[in-house]
Write a structure and sequence with these properties.
Low-confidence stretches: 1-17
Strand content: 25-35%
CATH superfamily of the largest domain: RlpA-like domain
Protein name: Expansin-like EG45 domain-containing protein
InterPro entries: Expan_Lol_pI (IPR007118), Expansin/allergen_DPBB_dom (IPR007112), Expansin_CBD (IPR007117), Expansin_CBD_sf (IPR036749), LolPI (IPR005795), RlpA-like_DPBB (IPR009009), RlpA-like_sf (IPR036908)
CATH topology of the largest domain: Barwin-like endoglucanases
Number of helices: 3
Distance between the termini: 48 Å
CATH architecture of the largest domain: Beta Barrel
Family: Belongs to the expansin family.
Domain Expansin-like CBD: 156-238
Helix content: under 10%
Order of helices and strands: EEEHEEEHHEEEEEEEEEE
Signal peptide: 1-18
Mean pLDDT: 82
Number of domains: 2
């Protein structure tokens, strides 16, 4: 059962004021259990454990952005040069960090990946460290943008989430329509990265999603009457990947440097 994905795109300037790509100062901690970040507020479930070799993070509300920040990638490094490398590590947001004491809570693997060789356990003993972080593009090697049908899906209710979105954009809206129809219906964000609708058009479906770099993605699913249609857990491979970077207008900090 194939997924057909085609694109129409044009740029718009984001009104976001947070400028995630600038270097931010804050505090970073870690989860003692790796699974904590896989069943978090983004709704990726056990799939998250396969993201980025398990280098995951829960972000505070300013980065989580009511779910729009799910799947965002950040470069993170601690500021103790005796314990940590200058390069730091890269993480993917899969959860919401509810603590007001830390900006990011990393998987233990990601936390220790910030350390100099042989200093991993010393860093881990600190629990919380001063750090700096910035938004960076996500790169999924040998992995295309995909759409997953969620377990809550029923004949009169459709829920999906997008997976493996490369580049540096955020999904802020999703629409659905019958393939070939100009009549689009807006979907609602159920939570995190999950979108749903009760107004399901008849026939095979196509989706389009919008971000700060606006890209209309038409993802085709087969009609609901087909035997395997909308089967919970099915992931449809788009055959393409995204590398767009949102233009946040963060000058002069957004010069790509990581000094």
């Amino acid at each position: 059962m194939a997924l057909l994905l085609c694109f129409l795109s044009f740029l718009i300037i984001s009104s976001a004021s947070s400028c995630d790509r600038c270097v931010h100062q804050g505090k970073v901690a870690y989860f003692s259990q790796e699974s904590a970040l896989s069943y978090g507020a983004c709704g990726y479930g056990s799939l998250a454990l396969g993201f980025n070799n398990g280098l995951l993070a829960g972000s505070d509300s300013s980065l989580y952005k009511n779910g729009a920040g799910c799947g965002a990638c950040f470069k993170v490094r601690c500021k103790n040069p005796s314990l940590c490398t200058k390069q730091g590590t890269q993480v993917i947001v899969t959860d919401l960090n509810l603590s007001d004491q830390t900006d990011l809570v990393l998987s233990s693997r990601a936390f220790m990946a910030m350390a100099n060789k042989g200093m991993e356990e010393d860093l881990k003993k600190l629990g919380v460290v001063d750090a700096e972080y910035k938004r960076v593009p996500c790169v999924y090697k040998n992995q295309n943008l995909a759409v997953r049908v969620e377990e809550m899906t029923q004949p009169n209710f459709l829920a999906v989430k997008f997976l493996y979105q490369g580049g540096q954009t955020e999904i802020v809206a999703v629409d659905v329509a019958q393939v070939g129809s100009p009549n689009w219906t807006s979907m609602s964000r159920n939570y995190g990265a999950v979108w749903d609708t009760k107004k399901i058009p008849t026939g095979a479906l196509q989706f389009r999603k919008f971000g700060f770099v606006r890209r209309t993605a038409k993802a085709r699913l087969p009609p609901a009457g087909e035997a395997e249609s909308w089967k919970p857990g099915v992931i449809y491979d788009s055959g393409v990947q995204i590398s767009d970077i949102a233009q946040e207008g963060c000058y002069p900090c957004d010069d790509g440097s990581w000094k």
